Amino acid sequence: MSLPQATSSASSMPREADESCDVLVIGGGPAGSTISALLAQQGRKVVLLEKAHHPRFHIGESLLPANVELFDKLGVRDQVEKIGMPKFGIEFVSPDHEHRSYVDFAEGWDKSLDSAWQVRRSELDELLFRNAATRGAQTIEGCKVRDVAFDADGATVQAEMDDGAKRSW
After folding, report:
1. What is the pLDDT of residues 3-47, one digit of tens each?
2. How far, in Å, CA of 144 to CA of 119, rounded?
3. What is the pLDDT of residue 45?
4. Which range of residues forms the domain containing residue 158?
């Protein structure tokens, strides 16, 4: 069975009573999308559920140089560079006093990690979510998890789609 390569919607998904997967991830932000992509690349059957639809508003994101290796592993570095503004350091400013502290990334432990990016969080989230689908995860937007029940065999997740349809894994 091949896994879907594109985001699914309520109308395009089968209406099976119970579906199965190796891993079900709740939340299509950076963490959920990243782990979904990595596990799918390893051959796991991954389902990634997101209650909203991308792009969705979120505050941030100020990335650090340590993210570069992960973006390379996910195969999205070029895409992040396109949506991001280069950033070569950070400055800490206190609201309580005049002291400021600046960190130049090129002076860090790993001199090769000399920059990162400032990105719109909504764009980064969508990029990572779509990448999870490209890597083999079944990605579903407009899907609110209503219940998670754990038992000796694993877990059962009950969710509701935007159109009111019920889904279970």
Report:
1. 344 444 443 444 445 799 999 999 999 999 999 999 999 999 999
2. 27
3. 98
4. 1-60+121-169
pTM of the model: 0.85
Residues 104 and 129 in one domain: no
How many residues in total does the chain contain?
Answer: 169
Per the omega criterion (within 30 degrees of 0), is the bond before 55 cis?
yes
Distance CA 86, CA 65 (A): 11
Nearest to 169 by CA among 19, 55, 40, 62: 19
Give the model confidence (pLDDT) of 155-166 as tens digits: 999 999 999 999
Positive or negative torsion for Cα 124, 126, 129, 132: negative
Determine what percent of the chain is predicted with pLDDT higher than 70.
90
87, 118 contact by CB (below 8 A) = yes
Q: Could you give the number of structural domains in the chain?
A: 2
Residues 102 and 157 in one domain: no
- Is the domain of 80 the same as that of 126? no
- Radius of gyration of the chain from its Cα atoms, rounded to whole angstroms: 19
